[in-house]
């Protein structure tokens, strides 16, 4: 026996789920309509400060990055570290401005090199089952991006310092 389209045998979970889907769809469509009605100059004015990304970052970018890593006053006149401290260029240029955009981009390049190193090392590891699905490989790639960023921030290889000194 059916009453209003709901079987007397079911518990009503299907109806509840359908109502939730309709509710979420309605909210989504309202949001789309409001975005379509906004003027170009008004786009983003209702966003919180935490939702606005810094320059050069993509929305949904998953890695932590280097923006804001060095902010102290002492970082404006820092000494070279790692391999860069022993190079001939460091003898001419005594300090590095770690707060500059150039140094931030140098850190990103160093992180890319570290990521290549880690990826090459990862390829030498034999997998137990021999096969890997797409989602797992994508997650591992993102994980190794974070490893590279963390290593670049903490290991002080000196490659970013050397790159910075060469470009200044």
User: How many DSSP E strands?
Assistant: 2
Helix residue percentage: 40-55%
Q: Strand pairing plus helix content: what structural class?
A: mainly alpha
Largest sheet: 2 strands, antiparallel
Task: Walk me through what this model shows.
The chain is an all-alpha fold and 168 residues long. Helices cover 50% and strands 2% of the residues. It contains 5 helices and 2 strands. Strands 1-2 form a two-stranded antiparallel sheet. Helix 3 packs across helix 4 and helix 3 crosses helix 5. The N and C termini lie far apart (82 Å).
Task: Put the structure in a nutshell.
The protein has five helices and two strands, in the order ββααααα. With 168 residues, the protein is an all-alpha fold.
Which short descriptors sum up this protein?
two-stranded antiparallel ribbon; 5 helices; 168 residues; 50% helix
Topology:
Blueprint: E1 2-3, E2 6-7, H1 13-37, H2 88-92, H3 101-123, H4 134-155, H5 159-167
Antiparallel strand pairs: 1-2
